[in-house]
Amino acid sequence: MKIALIAHDRMKEEIVQLAMAYENILAEHDLYATGTTGSRIMAATSLQLTRFLSGPLGGDQQIGAMIARNEMDLIIFLRDPLTSQPHEPDIIALIRLCDVHKIPVATNLGSAEIMLKALERGELDWREVVHKEKES
């Protein structure tokens, strides 16, 4: 599975803690992250990630392009609901793409943990079927 890890500034520590707690699950997958989030996760874990630009500089759109090409399977985007984001239209577009392409997306720690546990149990294996259908 290809998994994107994204976090707003005030949520970066939470996503690092999440990556540490679920490192054994995440290590079995291809991981992607926006700029600083990816750097912080790699510094705190042994996980290897493909890093994109930071969100405001286009990282959200780079991940969105992967979603549109059916190259992403799960998005964990820890959003800060209490702080205005200058690139809010990009964030909304990313979540809309997830909805259009039926990509599971978690936007808070609770839903992220549920998604990672489901991933561990094989409950997201249906994404493999989607990949095969898109190839035909």
TrEMBL record:
An example GO BP is:
methylglyoxal biosynthetic process
The record, for InterPro entries, names: Methylgl_synth (IPR004363), Methylglyoxal_synth_AS (IPR018148), MGS-like_dom (IPR011607), MGS-like_dom_sf (IPR036914)
Q: Does the keyword Lyase apply?
A: yes
User: EC number(s)?
Assistant: 4.2.3.3
Q: Which Pfam families match?
A: MGS
Query: What's the superkingdom here?
Result: Bacteria
Per the UniProt entry, the signal peptide is none
| Reactions the enzyme catalyzes | dihydroxyacetone phosphate = methylglyoxal + phosphate
- Record keywords, A-Z: Lyase
Active-site residue list: D60 (proton donor/acceptor)
Asked whether the UniProt record includes DNA repair among its keywords, one would answer no
Cellular component, GO, one term? cytosol
Residues binding substrate, per UniProt = H8, K12, T34, G35, T36, T37, S54, G55, H87
Tell me which SUPFAM superfamilies the record gives: Methylglyoxal synthase-like (SSF52335)
Supply the SMART domains for this chain.
MGS
Molecular-function GO terms, alphabetical: methylglyoxal synthase activity
Q: What class of enzyme is it?
A: lyase
Functional summary from the UniProt entry? Catalyzes the formation of methylglyoxal from dihydroxyacetone phosphate.
The family this protein is said to belong to: Belongs to the methylglyoxal synthase family.
- List the protein's name: Methylglyoxal synthase
Q: Which organism is it from?
A: Brevibacillus reuszeri
Question: What are the leading ranks of the lineage?
Answer: Bacteria, Bacillati, Bacillota, Bacilli, Bacillales
